[in-house]
Every structure is written in structure tokens, then in C-alpha cells.
Amino acid sequence: MPRTRVDTRAEIRAVAAELFTRQGFEKTSLREVAERLGITKAALYYHFPSKADLMRGIVQPLVDEIEELLADREAADGADPRQFLADYFDVILRYRQVFELMIRDVAALAQLDLLHQMLAWRDRIYRMLVGPDASPAQIARATVAIGGLQDCALTEAAVDEFRDAALDAAYAALGR
Amino acid sequence: MPRTRVDTRAEIRAVAAELFTRQGFEKTSLREVAERLGITKAALYYHFPSKADLMRGIVQPLVDEIEELLADREAADGADPRQFLADYFDVILRYRQVFELMIRDVAALAQLDLLHQMLAWRDRIYRMLVGPDASPAQIARATVAIGGLQDCALTEAAVDEFRDAALDAAYAALGR
DNA sequence: GTCTATACGTTGATAGAC
DNA sequence: GTCTATCAACGTATAGAC
């Protein structure tokens, strides 16, 4: 007896995302995901060809948005670093849960050939913040700014005061 | 025929640490660790009662040092924030590989009942950097500083210029 | 689109010999 | 300390009915 579902794939992603975040990707079995939804393991395989594909389905929207943001700013050169920090921060805040999953389970991401892309992001971001020929010191400052913001995105306290102060701190770290 | 080993437990830890870091805790099997050492899986169990205990053995030295640093600074109140940032940074730099393992595989850490302790660290560090009654804005600044330094510790470029700039950036993020 | 049933490899872990 | 042999549990995945 099939259940009434508006969008089964979306529901699977939602449940899986929550379990993956709480217990980790590897420690969550497909049987567990299926039981939560009241379907069987085999039904999952109808919607997603593998566990990795399920993970990819969860993460892809965030990946696409970041890729879009980067391409956008690279096209318009002479971008404002302060504005970029704000935009980047807002993207990962909007995808807070998914972003937490990615950060908390980097090992799982590596299996999706996504790690390479993420490392490339870092270099592109550095280039935008401190230029293409940055010194180690400038790289360090950019790393503190971006890494600091990412850590802030993982905390719950998303009040405006918190967001603005985080951006101020990140910009201050750049030392401009 | 037993191999000549100075310290078998230490060698197991070293090999496991490298594999865990590269492939993730869950994706690394004990068989794989054993094969690298030229022994069998069963031999591993003589030295470590479980896979989780092996992980704990790898991580424990860093955990102990951070715990020690925090206790030390809490005893001497009125500690210098700048000095604390430097000391904390130096500890995680010294344990760079292990620290990377912990950060890259937070999901595995949760199984060791270590996540709780790490979250407690965060609060204790915030208290030292911005006081016990900090505003959300001050928490945000402390988060950028610490999160930024941790990200810096994960990169390879450990030249002095990089280290000093990272500390400057973290201190600037505090906004004092 | 979802189910039952099933297959197969791998894993963490144990027992007991040497 | 290390081995061989073995285990149950779990993972992914497929075939075929409805």
C-alpha cells in the first residue's frame, strides 16, 4: 500500500540529512533511513542508485550555490572583499544544516569526489580576498577570516547581532 | 615469526592515524591496518580491545594537552588573550596530524563520548577570551578567532610568517 | 512506485592453539 | 604476541511480483 507523498525523493533527502548529521554518514544505515519513512531499503534504491548518490543529492544545492557565487564574483573583478564575506556567509547560513553535515563528515565527502572541488574553492576565495600573488601572511589572514565565518555558521545563535559581529571580526582578520 | 618492534602499540597508532586521516575512521578497516604492519587483525586485538579504543589512543595525547592548557589558564585568572591564542595555536600545530584527524572526522569522535568534552572546551575558551558574560557579538568574535586559527592549523604552510600572521588575524578578530 | 525475498562481501570481534 | 579459524551482524545491491 503506497503512502501518499508529495515528493518522495525530497522526503528521503530530508530524513537522511538529519540522520547523517546526527550520527555521521557511515554510521547511518539505509535500513534506518527507510524505516523512518515507513518504506523498505529496496524502495530507497528505486529513488537513489546508491548511498553516495543520496548524499550527493543532499549536498548538491549548496555546492551549486557556492559555485554560482564564485563564478559571479570572478566575472566582476575588483569585487569588494567585505561584500564577498557577507554573501558567502549568507549562503552557508541559509544551508546551515547541510553545511554542518559537510563539515562534520569531510571523510564522507571525499568519497563523492567533492573534496577536490572544495579545495579549489578555497584557492579561488583566497584569490578574491587577498589577490593572486598573496604572501603566506595574507593567506593566513584570509584563512582566519573564512575559517572563522564557517565556524560561526555552525553555531545556533543566528541573531542579527551575532551575524554582524562575525562579519566585522572576519573583516578585521583580513587586516585592511 | 614475530617482527622486531620497539613499541608495537606506538607503531599501530602511527599507521592507523595515517589511514584514518586519509580515508576516514569508518572507511578504514582493521584488516587494512594490520596488513600494513605485516600482522593479522587478531593481533591488533591483543593491543587494543576495540577499534574505538585504537582511535582514542591516537587522540588522547592531544586531548590531554589541551585539557592541561585550559586548566592552567583557568587557575591563573586575568590571563592574556593574545598569549592564550598563541599557546593554543602552538599545541594544535604540534599535533597537526592528529588534530586534522579529529576535525575531519567529528562523526567518529562522537562515538568516543569526546564530543561533549570538546563542546565544553569551546565554552571555556570563550570565557577566557571574552569573559563569562559575553554578548552574542563577543561570542561571534571569539568564534572567528578560534575557528580561524584551527583552520590555519590544517594547512601545510607552517612557516613563521604564516604563524605570526594567523595570530595577528585572530587577535584582530577579537576586536580589542 | 513500492514491495518481498534473497544474495554476497566485509566488518568488528572472539576462541583457542602455538 | 601472534596465529588460524570462525562468528553474527550489517552493508550494498539485485530480481521479480504486484
Q: What attributes characterize this protein structure?
A:
76% helix, Arc Repressor Mutant, subunit A, mainly alpha, 176 residues, DNA-binding, homodimer
Describe the structure in your own words:
The structure is a homodimer of 176-residue chains. Chain A is mostly helical. Chain A has helices spanning 8-23, 30-37, 41-47, 51-75, 81-94, 96-104, 106-110, 115-130, 136-154, 160-174. In chain A, helix 4 (51-75) packs antiparallel against helix 5, helix 5 (81-94) packs parallel to helix 9 (136-154) and helix 9 packs antiparallel against helix 10 (160-174). The mean pLDDT of chain A is 92. The interface between A and B is large, with 46 and 46 residues. The structure holds a DNA duplex (18 and 18 nucleotides).
The profile of the biggest β sheet of chain A is: none
Q: Name the helicity range of chain A.
A: over 70%
Output the number of helix runs of chain A. 10
Strand content of chain A: under 5%
Mean pLDDT of chain A: 92
Assembly state of the chains shown? homodimer
